[in-house]
Amino acid sequence: MMNKQAEGDQAAVHAHGLTVRRGTGRTPRTVIADIAFDVPRGRITGLLGPSGCGKSTLLRAIVATQAHVTGTLDVLGRPAGHPDLRSRIGYVTQAPSVYDDLTVRQNLDYFAAILDPGRAAAARRADAVHRAITDVDLTTRADALAGNLSGGQRSRVSLAVALLGTPELLVLDEPTVGLDPVLRRDLWNLFHDIAATRGATILVSSHVMDEAERCHDLLLMREGRILAQDTPDALRTRTHSATVEEAFLRLVDEANALLAQEQPR
Amino acid sequence: MNAARTAATAARVLRQLRHDPRSIALMILVPVLMLTLLRFVFDGSPRTFDSIGASLLGIFPLITMFLVTSIATLRERTSGTLERLLAMPLGKGDLIAGYALAFGAVAVVQSLLATGLALWALGLDVVGSPWLLLLVALLDALLGTALGLFVSAFAASEFQAVQFMPAVIFPQLLLCGLFAARSTMHPVLEGISDALPMSYAVDGMTQVLTHTDMTADFVRDVVIVAACAVLVLALGAATLRRRTP
């Protein structure tokens, strides 16, 4: 009982002194520099920041497909990269990673067989595949080749794959980029639905600031550092801003001013 | 390693191939057509056709599987599906064995057709058992798969991947004894050819061509080709990194 309680209180992702260097040469670039943050369980946390600020690298570190990660990074109570975590995390890369020469259903069948292998699990897999296709609203295109789908449809196939194993943590790298407004709204409704009904934690990155209003919590990131971690409301109130975008810009200005003070020319 | 995941991977690779009938046709038909062509090129000297034809029965599966595997795994790397798979509970061994199984199955069909046609329609004279020819062809296919998998790690694009074909396969082709007996080459080249796996693949075919029984040389050839395939597969597995640098 105590253990369960303790695990429930723990953040889904806990980072402390997290640094990531990239590149194989003699002088690797520091992409993420000594950051600390927590992603609360059962909520939607938005990771926002301009392109190239290290969002994707951070997400890769969390799903353990990133090398040269130092510092503390715990995911669902285990150190990132623990083999047990592989079936508990759903990860959607920025570019849709599905097989273009397979149909939607064949793609999902294959990934389902990797997550839940064996003949005994066939019925359970069929259910999971059916539900994932329904979740992303692709039932009418289930037997179309992924390569023949539109960009938005392909990224939904990619998302459906991540939904397969009913993951406790969903890590989504810019899932709504390039989608039309209706589809974006539908996807956000789906994210909220997943968080509310399945109790899953969702960490979603975006460089579009207006998506911030749809998240429960925000991590604002810039140049490999966390600028702020708060709810959208608190962030706006604290910076006396009308929108999260304005708040972000204000925080950037503050950080720059602070930097200028510390290092006078 | 997990048998169900390996089987699922092999089934998936074959399913991908099924959506690409033109590739299947090319893989199956090109060796058959080339052997037919060769038969009539050496219309006046059937002995030459026997020796070159038998060697080619081993070389075709190697080249085809090399090309197919290097492109297929490169696509897996560049499309992000490899990253996704390795973030899932899939062992590298499962993935590689899945590929080897799927392309091995294609190689069986290809070799059955090519060997059958060569022996019964084109009059290729083989003293030994056709099953041994098939065994060597299959091992060659496995070696091709292994080399393709390994090489795909060093190719950044499909354009580069196809360039590896002449770079990796042609030197072996020139030195394997197909054009000139290895013992008549410059001693340095003979030494190099001793170190290249295709030399043993072709030698194995020649053994079947000229001997009724399994000779000690044949067994050595088969073991060397198989060992090379396994070694290169292991090297290929090492190039499948779970983490991006």
From TrEMBL, chain B:
Annotated coiled-coil positions are none
> What range(s) does the ABC transmembrane type-2 domain occupy?
22-243
Q: Record's superkingdom?
A: Bacteria
Family (UniProt): Belongs to the ABC-2 integral membrane protein family.
List where in the cell it is found: Cell membrane
Q: Its membrane topology, per UniProt? A: Multi-pass membrane protein
Name of the protein this chain belongs to: Transport permease protein
The organism is Streptomyces yangpuensis
